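re: ur question from yesterday

yeah so i grabbed the chain u mentioned. its 111 aa long if i counted rite. heres the sequnce exactly as i have it in my notes:
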Amino acid sequence: QVQLVESGGGLVQPGGSLRLSCAASGFIFRLITMAWYRQVPGKQRELVATITTGGNTNYADSVKGRFTISRDNNKNTLYLQMNSLKPEDTAVYYCQFRDYWGQGTQVTVSS
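ran it thru and got these structure tokens back, copy pasting raw so excuse formatting
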């Protein structure tokens, strides 16, 4: 069955970096447009970035220039490189495609 397993979250100081990973299985990863979302308690889930099968990317305005989405089709893994992190980036981050979601990984940006 489809599985999406995120990892790489944690506590980081403002200005720091983290790289999130999403290990995918149970489907043909290279044929699927993938996305990262994030959610803060009490707020709607927010689209952070998408990457197509051809590697085209799109970003929310709030993360442009700081975050980079990428994929390794040989490893069936989706990545989100997050630089210059801000406290407002604190959220649970999810990878997603269609109706499938991972369990999420917590990112906390705080001094």
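noticed a couple things. The CA atoms of residues 2 and 26 lie 4 Å apart. also The mean pLDDT is 97.
anyway ttyl
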